[in-house]
Amino acid sequence: MSWKGQGDWEEEWGECYAGKRQPALFVINLNSGKVHAVKGIAKSLSVGQVVWAPPVESIDQYLVFVGWSADPRKLGIKYCYNRPCALYAVKVPLYKSEAAQSDLKSMEELTVVNLTQSISSAFFPQFSPDGKFIVFLSAKASVDSGVHSATDSLHRIDWPTDGKLCSSTKIIDVIPVVNCAEDGQFPGLYCSSFLSKPWLSDGCTMILSSYWRSCQVILSVNVLSGEVLRISTADSGFSWNVLTLDGDNIIAVCSSPIDVPQIKYGCLEDKATNTTAWHWLNVSSPIFKCSEKVTSLLSHLQFGITQIPVKDVSDCLTKGAAKSFEAIFVSSKVNNAPDPLIVVLHGGPHSVSLSSFSKSLAFLSSLGFSLLIVNYRGSLGFGEEALQSLPGKIGSQDVNDVLTAIDHVIEKGLVNPSKITVLGGSHGGFLTTHLIGQAPDKFVAAAARNPVCNLSSMVATTDIPDWCYVESYGSKGKTIFTEAPSAEHLTHFYSKSPILHISKVKAPTIFLLGAQDLRVPVSGGLQYARALKERGVETKIILFPNDIHAIERPQSDFESFLNIGVWFKKYCK
């Protein structure tokens, strides 16, 4: 009989990465089948997004990769772009003489070079087609401020043709962080990834997708001049996402809250005259065809993106924070009497609800509900000043923005004020439970998916305790973050939490909770739900034993929204 000791406990990257080993870098020789570990990389670095540098004759080839540091410890990294990271290069010597000897030399003494020491974040490295430079995304606005996601920036590094790298490589700004854009102008870069081959044939123009207020759009970016053009259709309110390039043409998909995804083929209208106008053709696809019943239900709906003026603008607000935010309003075309309303709130809080198709929200619309999908200040896509206005004011500014949006559509006679419900997950659940406590007479029912209900208990159990500090305290939170919160800190967290207002809640509430959630552990939602029951508020809890924070396993997602629909119909008769 034998047994194996457990060894030292190792930190993990939290949600979605539990039980997964530290990523490492290997090179495989396809001719010999041999696998070689790349040496010289510090054990404190987690490696990812590896690309080969262009080969140079008689010079050993480099690998370029992103490294995330585990110092002082690993915190949740899923959806969290505030984790410092850098681009590194490591030389991989190869034999060139005999094919039979085509194998890797010893890698024991290789030096790893940090290419981006002067910037706190660098990821998604992409070489230009001619190999003369690398472009990369940066979330430095997120890392430097502490918020989990913020406005991106795009940068360029010239790649040395002689293969001599140094850590003082000059970083050239291509698209800087946009703090506050003029109305209708480029609001900043919000890009979650690059295509594997994003280049047009000129070798300097990238095609990528980015958030633009409540829409996703397709941009062309000249990485030498910094020129940014919105090339997807701007007047429809649809959201667009680039799928791939076909030479100098684009294959994309577009949709809206009431239009299922449609494949589009884009080409420049007149290449000879260097026009920047793009022409988009429909591409028929059997994949996206719907049943006649679904098509009929969607055909009776309409949507629009509504500008919501900020209420009670004060002199202490930045220009960007004082600008209007947006809400997507979905309703029936035939509206003899206003339908019941579902207020839909995204999580994050630094995320965004896009004007794209969602089967779950389309289902709720088909039940006879109007939808008010609010992108409160702090959402992505509206510039950095508006985003940074929220940390330190959660539970007040965001709550007031949602109430302002609701009052806006009530004043326009678009909804029945006696039949308003609210739905949100994560920080959207935080807002949902805040709203039914702070405005208890406004809502007839609520649904919360893995909601943040009590920051003072969450800070000890979540994989992102720093989030509790930054969102509760603002910029100060990054510097005072500690693994041992003081009594003063815990009191402050409680004062920002929905549970503070639980004695005022009247709305029947359904909770959808993922038992494996490391981001907002299930104990917080259960505590809040039990406290509601204790006070006589009608409460329903559905626990998904195998789901994490997102509750996105197909069966769980289906069951979740089916129950939400039934719950809301029950209280909106």
UniProtKB/TrEMBL annotation:
Residues 356-572 form the Peptidase S9 prolyl oligopeptidase catalytic domain. It catalyses: Cleavage of an N-acetyl or N-formyl amino acid from the N-terminus of a polypeptide. One of its GO terms (biological process) is proteolysis. InterPro entries: AARE_N (IPR045550), AB_hydrolase_fold (IPR029058), Pept_S9_AS (IPR002471), Peptidase_S9_cat (IPR001375). The keyword RNA-binding does not apply. GO terms for molecular function: omega peptidase activity; serine-type endopeptidase activity. Pfam families: APEH_N, Peptidase_S9. It is found in: Cytoplasm. GO terms for cellular component: cytoplasm. Its EC number is 3.4.19.1. Signal peptide: none annotated. Residues 2-294 form the Acylamino-acid-releasing enzyme N-terminal domain. Homotetramer. This is acylaminoacyl-peptidase.
